[in-house]
Amino acid sequence: MGQVRNDKLFEIFNGHHLVNNLGGGGVPGMEEVWDRILSSGRLIYGLADDDAHVFKQPGNPNVPGLGRGWVVVRAERLAARPIVEALERGDFYASTGVELSDYQVTAAAITIAIRQEPSSKYRVQFIGRNGQVLSEAISSPAVYEFKGNELYVRARILESNGRVAWTQPVWR
């Protein structure tokens, strides 16, 4: 990956049932690879997708079905050009089912509000250089106040039933 240039998007989650997103056996997971790339000083945005191939067996975990990973973009309208522009500027988050009701970045902080499901609990991890967890919150909205020494800060939102969302890195 270090030799690839002019790339802006990196797949951190693939919903195909035979993809080893989390790594193992001495191989890093995709999120760890993403943090290595970011920590090298290269800005790249993280995607999730379902990699669906089978559409007639909904809910079967042993086939590459739909709805396992996607991105949510902040675009001015539902049309190809505004969606592509949002992807290019990193104005989106990736998810396997966690929904955000709001996401704001200012010069001072990142604020994340979760659209909560009653049967779920949530944990927001703010992550920086080398995948280090800088801060963790169980409240919504969750706030990370910049310290000034971060290379980047991104968030991973973990839901107690296994779903996850990832925000894009904020370059510092």
Report on the structure:
This protein has helices at 30-39, 80-89; strands at 9-14, 45-49, 70-73, 92-95, 99-105, 109-115, 122-127, 133-137, 142-145, 152-159, 164-167, 170-171. It starts with 8 loop residues before the first strand and ends with a strand. The relative contact order is 0.17. It has one domain. Strands 3, 4, 7, 8, 10, 11 and 12 form a seven-stranded antiparallel sheet that branches. A three-stranded antiparallel sheet has the order 5-6-9, with no helix packed on it. The chain is mainly beta and 172 residues long. The chain is globular, with a radius of gyration of 16 Å.
Write the layout of secondary structure elements.
Blueprint: E1 9-14, H1 30-39, E2 45-49, E3 70-73, H2 80-89, E4 92-95, E5 99-105, E6 109-115, E7 122-127, E8 133-137, E9 142-145, E10 152-159, E11 164-167, E12 170-171
Parallel strand pairs: 1-2
Antiparallel strand pairs: 3-4, 4-11, 5-6, 6-9, 7-8, 7-10, 10-11, 10-12
